[in-house]
Write a structure and sequence with these properties.
single chain, 479 residues, alpha+beta, Pnp Oxidase, Chain A, UbiD C-terminal domain-like, 2 domains, nine-stranded antiparallel beta sheet, five-stranded mixed beta sheet, 13 helices, 27% helix, binds flavin mononucleotide, binds manganese (II) ion
């Protein structure tokens, strides 16, 4: 099913009974707190209207994707699958990837209102202060930051947090190594400002692709979204930049990020995906000077405030796991039987890989590539590689394998891999130097290669014997 706008998607989830409309909440913390409490209960998506201090119709949507069914809808997958089945279904879909380029249209609803000059005012929208310790109002949470590579014209969409600093100023925390950051640095190396457009409240596949680490450099997220939805994304040219922006987006903020030194503005703190409030260095964050704001009548902010793990359902895990699986296989390592990020840590802190060992060193190769490939490394702390009899989505099984198949002295530590500055355990001096790396514990919890044949058999009946017994004694066992 294809959605042409966020409104289309809202209509569909409403029809399915997965939407609740809430009137009268305060943008200042209340929307965030209701969102957290409903997400913990795996409740519906929430559409906030008549928000305190704002006109009716200026709305905020949250928990938009926090159920298996809502996620499946966005990804064109069957509903009712378990998270692991979702991973498998997504892997199958990925095999058919063909870029579907966006089409440029002359006009679109995003241009119903065009604010320029004195009229520019980021406070026009009911941007929540999401968490109690936040240092500002983050309009960029479920957003897509659009940039163009100055060398080859490749257009990237990335979801990077953005906080309002003033009516016409916002900082965007594009971390080092992200595609948007690599592009921006090219403009800055030439002494030029980087044109940028931030879409807020876009059609759901455009959020999904903007947040997807597994989409490789050089692959345009518009093309990827076009493939996901089975039809090109419609874009219009911006008003202050010539960037293509989604024609049906609720809000698009356009402007430019001048080269460093960046404005000495504080950024954050902000409640982050690690489960902690992240206070980062002052004055090192790209700051966007806003040149135009486009918005639909009665605009809707798509809000995706990070919540403390473990969270009941995280749309990103099956996709992230599928991405790591693909990248390990692209490194020509065979026999991968499962990849997962347990248990509800979207922060990717624990990566688990199951492998059918085929030669000495095989399991370690899988662990190292999984730990170091782009889709797997960011935010990582522990990588566990296990034999393929272990269900990697079951944290209990994983820990049993660790507790019985590895030797503590054989655990490896790999230092200096790419990570997120929000890591709460990063030494402040390193963060201040922008040395944003962290170490990984690599646990090979496979039966050792040279003991494979002699390793004690697992104390559990074989699948055959269990099935036979179940068939014969089903009354006693299940009755
Ligand atoms: C709600 C949300 C907030 C995010 N905030 C940031 C952020 O502030 N900075 C950042 O670099 N990545 C952030 N990410 C992760 C990026 O969206 C992700 O790494 C994505 O792959 C970036 O796009 P790129 O691969 O094209 O660089 C966030 C993701 C989500 C879902
Ligand atoms: Mn990208």
């Amino acid at each position: 099913m294809k959605f042409d706008s966020l409104r289309d998607y809202i209509d569909e989830i409403n029809r399915l009974g997965e939407l609740k409309i809430i009137e009268g909440a305060d943008w200042n913390l209340e929307i965030g707190a209701i969102t957290e409490l409903v997400a913990e209960r795996q409740g519906p998506a929430l559409l906030f209207d008549r928000i305190k201090d704002y006109p009716a119709g200026f709305r905020v949507l949250t928990n938009a994707f926090s159920s298996v069914r809502r996620t499946a809808l966005v990804h064109g997958l069957p509903t009712g699958l378990t998270p692991v089945e979702t991973l498998k279904a997504w892997r199958e879909r990925m095999e058919g990837y063909q870029p579907v380029p966006p089409v440029e249209v002359k006009d679109g609803p995003v241009k119903e209102n065009i604010l320029k000059g004195e009229d520019i005012d980021l406070f026009k929208f009911p941007t929540p202060k999401w968490h109690e310790h936040d240092g500002g109002r983050y309009i960029g949470t479920g957003c897509a930051v659009i940039t163009r590579d100055p060398d080859d014209g490749w257009i990237n969409l990335g979801c990077y947090r953005g906080v309002i600093q003033d009516r016409n100023l916002m900082t965007i925390k594009i971390n080092l190594g992200k595609h948007g950051r690599l592009m921006m640095s090219k403009y800055h190396a030439r002494g030029e400002s980087c044109p940028v457009a931030v879409a807020v409240g876009q059609e759901p596949t455009l959020f999904a692709v903007a947040a997807d680490m597994a989409i490789r450099g050089g692959v345009g997220e518009y093309e990827y979204a076009g493939w996901m939805r089975g039809a090109p994304v419609e874009v219009v040219k911006g008003e202050a930049t010539d960037l293509p922006v989604p024609a049906t987006a609720e809000i698009v903020i356009e402007g430019e990020i001048p080269p460093p030194p960046f404005e000495p503005l504080s950024e954050g703190p902000f409640g982050e995906w690690t489960g902690y409030t992240a206070e980062l260095t002052q004055g090192v964050h790209p700051t966007m000077k806003v040149k135009a704001i486009l918005h639909r009548n009665d605009p809707i902010i798509l809000g995706v405030p990070p919540l403390k793990p473990p969270i009941p359902y995280d749309f990103a895990i099956p996709k992230k796991a599928a991405g790591v699986w693909e990248q390990i296989e692209k490194a020509d390592i065979p026999g991968i039987k499962g990849v997962w990020f347990p248990p509800g840590f979207s922060s990717a802190a624990i990566l688990a890989i199951a492998v059918e060992q085929q030669y000495p060193g095989h399991a370690k190769m899988a662990a190292l590539v999984g730990s170091a490939c782009r889709a797997g490394t960011y935010g990582g702390r522990i990588t566990i590689v296990v034999d393929d009899d272990i269900d990697v989505s079951d944290i209990g099984e994983l820990m049993w394998a660790v507790a019985t198949r590895c030797k503590a002295e054989e655990v490896d530590i790999v230092r200096g891999l790419w990570t997120a500055p929000t890591d709460p355990r990063m030494d402040p001096e390193d963060r201040n130097k922008n040395l944003i790396v962290s170490s990984r514990i690599i646990i090979n919890a496979c039966r050792p290669w040279d003991m494979l044949k002699d390793f004690p058999p697992v104390n559990r009946f074989s699948d055959d014997y269990r099935k036979k017994t179940l068939d014969k004694w089903s009354d006693v066992i299940t009755g």
